[in-house]
Structures are given as C-alpha cells and as structure tokens.
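Entry:
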Amino acid sequence: MKEQALALITGHGPWLPLAAFLVLGALVFLVASRLARAADTIADATGLGRAWIGVILLAGSTSLPEITTDVNAAVLGVPDIGVGDLMGSTLANMLILALLDLVYAKRQILQKVAINHAVVGLLAIALTMIAGIAMATGGFGRLGPIGIESLVIIVVYLLGMRIFYQLTQTAAAGLIPDPPGVQAAQAEGDKRVRLRSAAWTFTLAAAALVIIAPLLVISAEAYSVESGMSQTFVGTLLVGLTTSFPEIATTVAAVRLGAVDLAVGNIFGSNAFNMCVLLFMDVAYTQGPVLADVSADHIATAQLATLSMAFGVLGIMSRLEHRSAVTRFGSLLVVASYAAGIWLLSRG
C-alpha cells in the first residue's frame, strides 16, 4: 500500500507530493473546525466545563493526527519524522496560541483563562523534558521493545491529569445548581438533544481525522525524498505544522466563540498528550525504543518546545500581578522560539 502510494506521487518532482500534503492538511483543517463547536456544546450540555473538555476530549481528538501519523512513521521505519512531528507540533501549537494572544490582544486570552491551565502547562513541560533527557542519554533502558522513558511519561501524565481533575472539580463546586421545576426539566431535555447531536458530530469529525491523517506521513516522506530535505526537518516543520491544523482550527474557533478555556486547554492538553504518543510509537517500532534511535537534532527542538511552553505558563501566571505587558512579551518570545527552530533545522 505504501509503495503504491509513494509511486503515485514520486518521480515527478517535489510539487506533486507538496500539493497532496497541502490538500490533506486543508481537509484536516475543515474537519477540525467542527470539533470545536461540538466540544463547546458537549462542555455546556454535560456541565463538565470548558477547561476539562478542552484538556481531555478536545485535546485527545485533535491529537489523532499525531497518533496515526507517528505510529505509521514508526511502522514505516522513519521514526525521525514521527518524533519530529511531536516536537514540531508542540512548537506549532504554542505558535498558534502566541499569535492568537497577539492578534486578539484586547481579549487577553492568557490572562482570562482559569489559573488551573498552568498545571497542564507545567505537566507538558515535564513530559517534554523527560523525552529530551531520554534522547540526550540514549534512553532510560527498555522493557522488551518499549523504552522505560515512554512508561514514565504515561505515569506522569496520568498523575498530572488526576491533579488537574481535582482542581477543576473544586472550582466547579461553587457553581449555582439548575433551578427546580418544569423549566429545569425542559432545560434538561434540551441538553440531552444537544448533547446527542454534538456527540455524533464530534465522533464523525474525529473518524474523518483518523482516515485522512495517515496519508500525511506518506506525502511527507515523498516530499522529503523529492526535495532532498532531511526527515528531521520535514517531520518537525512540515508534518508538525500540518498535524497541528486541528489545533489551529479548533483554537481559532474556540477563541471566536469566546471559549478561551476551551482554546487554551486544547493547546496545553495536546502538548501533554503528544508525549504520550511515544508509547504507541515504541509499540509499533520493532527496532527498539524510539527515542534511543532518532537524530540528536530533536534535542534542540525539545528544548525550544519546553521554552515556548514556559513562556505560555508565564503568561497565565502574570494575571496574578495584572501585568499584560509580560504576557505580550512572552508571546513574542514564543514566536521567536519557533523562528529559531526553523533556523536550527535548516542548518542541518
């Protein structure tokens, strides 16, 4: 299957695989815009809140391209594209958040979200640091074909999500309950109808992502071959940016809806979940732990990704001091970090 697909788009120069890549990316972008509206409806209908839905449900669904793309990269024996995609996706996600914070400056996105999002940001930083250390040291060891670092990442992720859930539950405890009587019954019936419709939309959109996203790695590999670019460069920038299209679409849509908690939760939640994809890659990659068998160039992008998320967390924490200038400066530094990543990888 892979050979047939590659044969169709290779041998004719880099423009054909690039065109295929852009078309697939556009489809992902269109489908993901539906996810944001459906997720916002689910958050309202279930009462779970936009922060929790953004971090768990929306982040998990918009990370489907990373799962399918990177597992396929591991199966096809090109782990550099997969790991580069994960680091590049984190950088691209933070670039999205920074640009939205600068473009919609009056909305003060990072200063209006729940302070609990800083916990998820710090969790994403910790997980990315674990992955970076594993790459720098050649891994922490192995249990069969799976690297111990992948198992450590999963355990830390689950612990972090438990802490975040407890914080959101504490915040939700102060909400005013629904009014009693007929109006409450009617409202409950309306919520069930809206929830059913939103759940179907969400499921269909997520399924579409699963179908479209695996083709990205094939077109990216074809472009890498035709253009002569390294797999690290293609994975980090081209695949990383394109598989972030769901985050781009859903985050922009959420900001326009005024659901800033949904938007920020999606970004930081996706960054944290991205590192968990390494376990799926380890299972699919039969030659050993993935992080022990990839280019050292990924260490630099992991550092830049960590730095970008630190600036994002700084923006959220600055709300305590009401310093909007700190938030704006942090967003500018995130953009600079992404530009630095492009420059570093282009030199390789």
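Residues 175-179 have pLDDT under 50 and may be disordered.
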